[in-house]
Structure formats: C-alpha cells, structure tokens
Amino acid sequence: MNRKTLSVICAAFLGVALLAGTVAAQTESEINAALQAAYAKYKDLQEGKNADYIPALAKVDSKIFGIALVTPGGKVYTAGDIKSEVSIQSICKVFTMAKVMEEQGAEAIIKTIGVDATGMRFNSIVAVEWSQKLLNAREINPLVNPGAIVAASMLKGANRDAIWKSLLGFYSDFAGRPLSVNQEVFKSESDTNQRNQAIGYLMYAYEWIKSEPMRATDIYTEACSVNVNAKDLAMMAGTLANGGKNPVTGKQVLKAENVPGLLAVMAIAGLYDDSGKWLYRTGLPGKSGVGGGIIAVSPGKFGIAVISPPLDDAGNSIRAQKAIADISNALGGNPYAVKK
Ligand code: GLN
Fold first, then answer.
1. Residue in 91, 95, 123 to alter for ligand 1 test, most ligand atoms within 8 A of Cβ
2. Interval 37-82: pLDDT, tens
3. CA 265 to chain centroid
4. Given CB 3.0 to 4.6 Å as the disulfide criterion, which of 50, 204, 276, 286 pairs with 296?
5. Which atom of ligand 1 is nearest to the CA of 148?
6. E strands of 112-209, at which residues?
7. What are the structural domains, with CATH classification, of the chain?
8. What is the C-alpha R_g of the chain?
9. SS3 content of the chain, % helix, strand, coil (to 5)
C-alpha cells in the first residue's frame, strides 16, 4: 500500500470517527436540552393537587419536581430535584408483576389475573365484579389494585418476612441501590386501608387469592410505601428499556423474555383509566403512582421518570405527564413513529 492510499484511508477513518463523535455529543446535548426545556416550561405550573385519601401524601411538598432519564448505555441525565424522595405507590405494581413473572413465568399472569384493561379506576371493585360475574374470566390486570393484591399473594417465600425481603431486594436491583420503606406513609396507608382490605377479601372470596388475603394486602401496602427519587425511578425504567438489565450495575434483574409482556400491560393500564390518552400522545408504556411519580419506557432508547406530587382527576401527576410527553417527543421516543 503506498503512502497516498494509506493517508486517504486514515483520513476516511478520522472522518467517520469525528462524525460519530459529533453525533454522540449532539445527542447528549439534545437530551440535556430536552430535559431542561421541560423543566423550565412546567416548573411554575400550578395545576392539580396531592393525593389526600392517604393522609401522609397530602403533606408531601407539592413543589418537588425532578426529571431523570437513563439510557441503555448507562448515561444518566437529570433536571430539577432528583434528591427528594416520595413513596413509589402504584409504580411498584410493575415490579411486583415482574417478580411473579420471574418466579412463575409469563403465563401465570394471564391465567391468574389477566392482562386486559378494566377502563375503570385503579381501586374499582366493579371491575372485579364485571370480570367475575359477566365475563366469568380472569380479565383484569396486575396494575390495578385488585390485580396487584393478587400478584402480591402469588409471591414465593417461606413467610411474610422472607417474601418482603426478597421483593424489596428485587426493587432495589432495578434501582441499583438499596431502597427502604417510608414508615410514615406505610402507617398512614395501613390505618386507612379498608378499601384495599375489602378488595383483598373479595379476591379471596372469588378464589383469585388462595390464602392469607390480609397478608397479601399488607405486602402490597408496604410495597407502595417504598421511597424513591426521580433517579431511582428512571433507573428502574432504564432497566426495562435495556431488556431487563440494569444499565449501570450490569445485573440482569428480569429475564429479557419477560420484558415485552410487562411493557404491554403498562401500555394498556399504566395510567389508570387515562391509559389510552397517554398512549395516544406518547406511544410509551408508562406507570404512574399517586405519590406523584411516573415512569415511561422507550424500548432500546431510554427509561424516563418524573416526580411531581400534584395529580389530575384520574390520579396521574400533571407535570410528569406533560414533561415526559415533551421530552420523549423531542427525542423521537415514540416506538410507533417510523423515522424516514
Ligand atoms: N397505595 C395506593 C392505593 O392502594 C396506590 C394507588 C396508586 O398509586 N394509584 O390506593
């Protein structure tokens, strides 16, 4: 090879390397810009109010507003308050469902609970009656309270303590750090938990739960009380965006084969009875909690989370919905959109 050919080849390599570098750098700054823009746009938005049917949630600072995004490569982008913790609430249902899938396989969810949207509120009893009496089938899902309490009853372990430790460890593997329970929220919710207890007994009466319905309800309630910040939630979502492998710790938390089913149920039921509207606007599987968090997953691209406690009438954080939709749309996160 003569000198001229060699220098042409070197120049070509350099060009490609520079181009790749530019694209990567641009993407990073684009992501940062999208997060900062959404933060600035919605920081002063005064709409909605904290959940108050669980007394401790009414006391949480409504001004908390944190955004975090995690890529499959393990890069973490943040804006606003990513230190303040809130209780995970209904977002935990995704990870309890994931644990049941790990322990018993994906079919167990379909057979025992169902994977269909109820179209009703998250703690609807009518949804159970509808499935039980009119359809005579298992046609709810693990992301509404009745299905989540059934999922909690399916967890494996020698006793309550063993089941709980294993569940909290599983959540922590998703977050990439040891999570803990907000005892004030757990007590507050336990003291006012009569409706969920009624749901637990109903599911037992209809034999969706095989034994100890109050133990399942209590585990469900403790799971809802786990504290998280926006970065924890984004890491949990990022693990789902990365085929079940935590992008920072490298641990395969959930089998890759279980991820699509989990995301499918998030898509149909993650934002309660507004799941359709959310999917229409973003195309993203998501999950919200009455603590003010929302996670969303763009498979292979990113996991994102926003925390902001004020909720709309359906129980979804207002700022979180808006910020995630803006950021995802800016970054081409909608998996249904084909780029030409
Ligand atoms: N712990 C809450 C409940 O059971 C969770 C509800 C939610 O976040 N939607 O009511």
1. 123
2. 999 999 999 999 999 999 999 999 999 999 999 999 999 999 999 9
3. 11
4. 286
5. 4
6. none
7. 3-331 (3.40.710.10)
8. 21
9. 55, 10, 35
